[in-house]
Amino acid sequence: MVDADEAERHGLVNAVFEPADLLAKTMEVATLLASKASLRSPPRGRVQQGSPGGHAENLEAEVTSFGKLFATEDAKEGMTAFVEKREPNFVGR
After folding, report:
1. Phi, psi of 52 (to 5 degrees)
2. pTM for this structure?
3. CA 50, 37, 28: angle at the middle one, nearest 5?
4. Which CA distances in Å does 45 have to 29, 33, 89?
5. 9: left (phi over 0), alpha (psi -120 to 50) or beta
6. Which residues contact 13 (CB under 8 A, 6 or more apart)?
7. Cα gap 36→81, rounded to integer Å
8. CB neighbours of 65 closer than 8 A, spacing ≥ 6?
9. Residues 73, 89: contact at Cβ < 8 Å?
10. What secondary structure does DSSP assign to 21-80, as a single string?
11. What is residue 20's three-state secondary structure?
12. What burial letters (b/e) apply to 38-58, b meaning 16+ CB within 10 Å?
């Protein structure tokens, strides 16, 4: 077991915040990440409300959604941009 400050020193977490600031900081990071995504899956409402069905069925749906996203032009562009150390140019496909 390590405390938050030690976890940050060792690079186990990106940052440590006071409890009162945590939600705002979390939303900042979530907004930044969402701004970088040109395609989204699964539908936002499904994630927020929980997925219907059993665990195995939900895992299969997740695998299917991930596979579809991974095969997109934007996924290929993102990986290429990362390797080339440049900003990606997403087109939404």
Report:
1. -75, 160
2. 0.44
3. 75
4. 20, 18, 27
5. alpha
6. 4, 7
7. 13
8. 41, 42
9. no
10. HHHHHHHHHHHHHHHH-SS--S-HHHHHH---S-HHHHHHHHHHHHHHHHTSHHHHHHHH
11. helix
12. beebeeeeeeeeeeeeeeeee
Question: How do the pLDDT tens digits run along the chain, 93 residues long?
Answer: 899 999 999 999 989 999 999 999 999 988 888 777 666 555 544 554 556 778 888 888 888 888 888 888 888 988 999 999 998 888 878
Structure tokens at 44: 């936002």
- Let me know if 77 is exposed, middle or buried by CB neighbors in 10 A (0-12, 13-18, 19+): middle
Rounded distance, CA 71 to CA 74, Å? 8
Two tokens, residue 88: 């990606």
Q: Which residues, 6+ apart, have CB-to-CB distance to 4 below 8 Å? A: 13, 16
Amino acid letter, 83? V
